[in-house]
Amino acid sequence: MKPAAINDMFRRLQAANPEPKSELDYVNPYTLLVAVVLSAQATDAGVNKATRALFERVTTPQGMLDLGEEGLREHIKTIGLFNTKAKNVIKLSEILVREHGGEVPRDREALEKLPGVGRKTANVVLNVAFGEETMAVDTHIFRVSNRLGLAPGKTPEQVEAGLLKAIPKPFLRHAHHWLILHGRYVCKARKPDCDRCPIADLCTAAEKWVA
Fold first, then answer.
1. Of 87, 138, 154, 169, which is the active-site residue?
2. How far lies 19's CA from each of 14, 45, 101, 152, in Å?
3. Which of 32, 49, 119, 159 is the right S-S partner for 26, CB 3.0 to 4.6 Å?
4. Would you call 107 a catalytic residue per the annotation?
5. Catalytic residue among 120, 195, 201, 208
6. The pTM is what?
């Protein structure tokens, strides 16, 4: 996509949703971190259902340690890979208490050292909790970026670098959510809803799906 089309694309997405929000429920940076770790290979809706009661009881790393791994497993047993995720959440909570005073660090390197936290998770936390202009490339963003010709790449890292370079700075703060929501609800994997897409005329996809 050409720079003018990219600018127009994000201008339209912004007009339709000026302040996009994460669809994961959370109450502070720590619960956001936990929710994102739990969301790997799971839906946001499924995670929210499992964490509703959990976050009413636990909102800090120390609170999670007091609950314990077995107690955490009971809350999240409906989520895929819950045993491994429970171990990671307890371990990362221990590190936060021991090394960061119980606070979530606003630092990518420190975040990525936590069990269960990769680059995508760190980017989500930095963006949503701290307002950093990061780009967490999930399956939706990867697909949309390649399909639209916005930031083609063979790996999430390539797409991330391309997006950070291509997206005009005024839109970077919320671009992550605009692209995720667009991919989740409009530019879907199997059958995109091109007939209701607000940027269909800007799209460079080789094939369009029109009802």
1. 138
2. 8, 20, 31, 26
3. 32
4. no
5. 120
6. 0.91
8: its two tokens: 């127009």
Q: Identify the segments of the chain with pLDDT beneath 50.
A: 211
d(CA 129, CA 113): 18
Known active-site residue 49: no
All domains in the chain, ordered by first residue? 3-20+134-202 (1.10.1670.10), 29-130 (1.10.340.30)
* Residues 6+ positions from 91 with CB-CB distance below 8 Å: 114, 115, 116
d(CA 120, CA 203): 26
Alpha-helical (H) ranges within 39-155 are 44-57, 61-76, 82-100, 108-112, 119-130, 139-148
The CA-based angle 185-54-105, given to 5 degrees, is: 80
